């Protein structure tokens, strides 16, 4: 895993496709790894001896391990804890937002209903974390 | 006749027709006087109680206890209610018993101190109290049930809304991607159809938003600060896309109210939007907004000059998802939301035919001034 990799964790295939396509429109090309369940994404991050991804885009509501559980497990791990996790969800509930931040999320976005908005939002996220990473 | 007997007889005459049961008992527990009401209470023939042991009137098994109480009373005779805090029962001549209340007072007579007992049958009172208790419990049960089903409804709507929003969003996005990727090759007909799908999906999305705000309106907290209404209506108008030529006239003297301005704006928005949406001549439609203090309420009236609403549909109009006219763009949430918000304030809303043509929608807010 290289630092120009973006990890997407979302059980909704359409959403992962949309995000992939939106990332393709960004000026800097990213390698995208898609996981449809959080547990295997966590496994993958643990095993990875290479560099952490640029950021993780995380859905909250998933069967099996949900987004909150994933955040809890990842953010309490010394090695993985520094990787930014950006929540990408349909939920606009205050308590979800609060809990996500409490568990260490770096950002919280309600999935936009327009493709162009997805492109724009991910552009901002990508630029922000690219700059934040720069030594 | 001995003076003591004469004395008792005179007392008996005086008390004979009192509307409560009166008994007099001597230290030995023998009834020396019983008025007509007392005889009737215990189901004895006239004159039959006099000379009987008082214990005959006490339910079986309590005779001993009662005798001790009586002895104690004669030691310290003061006027008081008998058996304070306990339930007392009397026994009729047929062996049945009934609840009663007894007041005791010592009476000095020529034959020594006697105790006068005023006896009231409280069967009716007891039954009434039991019935009131039952009603209160029933009311409590119904109330709890109502609260539960209201909560269920809110939970249900919120879950359904969230679950409906996701696939709708997917439909809109997929249509958008289709057009973006293949637009030029699709041809006008397909593009038009796709547009239609997107429009319908958008309408459905608005409807779900409406459903969500409707459930949330049930959780409003009333706002205590008085607010001017005209600015609220004006801001609503700036957000509404009025058809060219349509006008909304706001009266100068709208009274102030003490409610959440956001929710008040929502009410005016939905009512004015409703009036304009259903107009049969949108390009020259006129909607009037008026208000006044009336008794204990502030009343607001929104009057249009549209086709009106038939009387038989007045009640239905405020129900959820009832768009009364086929082919009209209403989502069926607007008026239901109005009713819910207004009810939350403790007010009411209704429809009346406007003088001439059109309809007047009135809502009231209890006057907090």
Task: Give the CATH topology of the largest domain in chain B.
Answer: Heat Shock Protein 90
Give the count of helical stretches of chain B.
Answer: 7
Mind describing the biggest β-sheet of chain B? 6 strands, antiparallel
- Helix count of chain A equals 5
CATH class of chain A: Alpha Beta
The CATH topology of chain A: Rossmann fold
Which architecture of the largest domain in chain B would the CATH scheme give at its second level?
Answer: 2-Layer Sandwich
Can you tell me about this structure?
The complex is a heterodimer of chains A (135) and B (369). Chain A starts with a strand and ends with a helix. Chain A has one domain: 3-Layer(aba) Sandwich (Rossmann fold). The relative contact order of chain A is 0.18. With 135 residues, chain A is an alpha/beta fold. Chain A has five helices and five strands. Chain A has a five-stranded parallel beta sheet, with helices on both faces. Chain B is of the alpha+beta class. In chain B, the strands form two sheets. In chain B, strands 1, 2, 3, 4, 5 and 6 form a six-stranded antiparallel beta sheet that branches. In chain B, strands 7-8-9-11-10 form a five-stranded mixed beta sheet. At the A-B interface, helix 1 of A face helix 4 of B.
Structure summarized in a few sentences:
With 135 residues, chain A is an alpha/beta fold. Chain A has helices at 13-24, 38-47, 67-75, 94-102, 115-133; strands at 5-9, 31-35, 55-58, 85-89, 107-110.
Attribute tags:
heterodimer, A: 135 residues, alpha/beta, Rossmann fold, five-stranded parallel beta sheet, 5 helices, 5 strands, 44% helix, B: 369 residues, alpha+beta, Beta-Lactamase, Helix Hairpins, Heat Shock Protein 90, 3 domains, six-stranded antiparallel beta sheet, five-stranded mixed beta sheet, 7 helices, 11 strands, 45% helix, elongated
């Amino acid at each position: 895993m290289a630092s120009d990799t973006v990890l997407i964790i979302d059980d909704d295939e359409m959403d992962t496709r949309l995000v992939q396509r939106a990332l393709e429109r960004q000026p800097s090309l990213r390698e995208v790894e898609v996981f449809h369940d959080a547990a295997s994404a966590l496994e993958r991050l643990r095993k990875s001896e290479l560099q952490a991804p640029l950021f993780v885009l995380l859905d909250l509501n998933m069967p099996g391990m949900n987004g909150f559980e994933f955040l809890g497990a990842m953010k309490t791990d010394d090695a993985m804890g520094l990787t930014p996790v950006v929540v990408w969800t349909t939920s606009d509930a205050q308590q979800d937002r609060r809990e996500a931040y409490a568990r260490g999320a770096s950002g919280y976005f309600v999935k936009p209903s327009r493709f162009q908005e997805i492109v724009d939002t991910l552009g901002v996220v990508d630029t922000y974390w690219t700059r934040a990473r720069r030594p | 006749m001995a003076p003591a007997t004469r004395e008792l007889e005179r007392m008996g005459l005086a008390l004979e027709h009192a509307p409560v049961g009166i008994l007099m008992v001597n230290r030995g527990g023998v009834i020396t006087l019983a008025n007509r009401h007392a005889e009737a209470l215990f189901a004895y023939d006239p004159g039959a109680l006099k000379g009987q042991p008082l214990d005959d009137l006490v339910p079986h098994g309590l005779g001993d206890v009662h005798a001790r109480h009586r002895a104690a009373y004669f030691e310290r005779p003061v006027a008081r209610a008998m058996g304070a805090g306990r339930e007392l029962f009397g026994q009729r001549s047929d062996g049945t018993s009934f609840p009663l209340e007894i007041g005791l007072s010592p009476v000095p007579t020529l034959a020594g101190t006697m105790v006068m007992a005023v006896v009231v049958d409280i069967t009716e009172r007891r039954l009434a109290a039991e019935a009131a208790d039952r009603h209160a419990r029933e009311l409590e049960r119904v109330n709890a049930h109502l609260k539960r089903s209201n909560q269920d409804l809110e939970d249900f709507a919120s879950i359904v809304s969230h679950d409906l929003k996701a696939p709708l969003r997917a439909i809109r996005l997929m249509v958008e991607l289709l057009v973006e990727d293949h637009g030029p090759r699709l041809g006008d007909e397909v593009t038009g159809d796709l547009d239609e799908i997107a429009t319908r999906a958008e309408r459905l999305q608005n409807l779900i938003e409406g459903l969500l705000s409707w459930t949330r309106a049930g959780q409003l907290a009333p706002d205590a600060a008085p607010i001017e209404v005209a600015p609220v209506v004006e801001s609503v108008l700036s957000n509404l896309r009025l058809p060219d030529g349509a006008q909304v006239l706001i009266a100068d003297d709208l009274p102030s109210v003490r409610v959440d301005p956001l929710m008040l704006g929502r009410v005016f928005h939905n009512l004015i939007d409703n009036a304009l949406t259903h107009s049969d001549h949108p390009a020259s439609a006129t909607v009037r907004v008026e208000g006044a203090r009336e008794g204990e309420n502030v009343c607001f009236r929104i009057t249009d000059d549209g086709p009106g609403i038939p009387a038989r549909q007045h009640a239905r109009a405020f129900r959820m998802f009832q768009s009364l006219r086929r082919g009209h763009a209403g989502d069926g949430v607007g008026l239901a939301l109005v009713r819910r918000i207004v009810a939350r304030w403790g007010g009411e809303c209704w429809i009346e035919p406007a003088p001439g043509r059109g309809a007047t929608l009135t809502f009231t807010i209890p006057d907090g001034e």
